Amino acid sequence: MIKQITYLTFLDALLSGDKLLCQSIVRNLIDNKIPVETVYFDLFQKIMYRIGTMWEKNQISIAVEHQATQIIDELISTTLNESNRQDRIGKRCIISCVDKEYHLLGAKMVSYIFELNGWDAIFLGASTPPKTLVKFIVEKDPHVVGLSNNFHLNFLRLLETVELIKQARPHQQIYLGGQAIGQIADKLPKENEGVRIFSSIMDLNKHLKEISLQPV
After folding, report:
1. What is the residue-averaged pLDDT of the chain?
2. pTM value?
3. In the chain, what are the domain boundaries?
4. Where does residue 89 rank: exposed (0-12), middle (13-18), buried (19+ CB within 10 A)?
5. How far from chain centre, in Å, is Cα 198?
6. What's 182's DSSP letter?
7. At what angle do helices 4-16 and 62-81 cross, to 10 degrees?
């Protein structure tokens, strides 16, 4: 758990564009053996959600939101490069945002969580068209496909993507996450249909550790 004072100091530094202070805070956490997944969830994910809400309420400008996003993006990559990754387990995942979804940092962190747990992760970034994604999935034959959806307006695109994946690969395991998922979970396919919803990066990390010893 990251202390509230650390969270608030990081948020203030982020909103003011103080990249060096943000880097120093994260460096201190890593040096004090705070797990990367904890930094992702208790700091980056919570901060991103808060900044998104602030922007929606016109409490910050789009320029400030973009600045904060870029700083966190750099820090996400830095923390992964400095972490101890589990040995490869011979499993592959494809992580992408749904079509017209441009907030990609959550999905990027998810791809790194897979890597930390020994997976080979392919991260496609923002707004991947459904048919292009399905073709790529068929070519790469992943064990898991992860989709991120942060805006409820993209819900129909998410459903379309899941349906197309299932048509091409009926037994494909699909993991879903993002800020909007909780609002629309009751409209999504159920876990027994090969679709699993994760409410946080920590939940995903726990799940991956539980299945890490299962046969490939």
Report:
1. 88
2. 0.86
3. 4-81, 92-211
4. middle
5. 10
6. H
7. 120
Q: Which of 56, 176, 193, 40 is nearest to 116 (CA)?
A: 40
Could you identify the residue written with the tokens 């004072």?
Answer: 5
The CATH fold assigned to 92-211 is Rossmann fold (3.40.50)
Strands ordered across the beta sheet of 144-148: 120-123, 92-97, 144-148, 173-177, 195-197
Beta bridge partners of 173: 144
pLDDT at 215 over 60: no
Q: pLDDT tens digits, residue range 164-191?
A: 999 999 999 999 988 767 666 666 666 5
Looking at residue 61, its amino acid is S
What CATH code would you report for 4-81? Answer: 1.10.1240.10
- Any alpha helices (H) in the chain, and if so which ranges? 4-16, 19-31, 36-38, 46-56, 62-81, 105-116, 130-140, 155-168, 181-184, 201-211
Both ends of the chain: CA-CA distance in Å? Answer: 33
Q: How many CB atoms lie within 10 A of CB 20?
A: 8
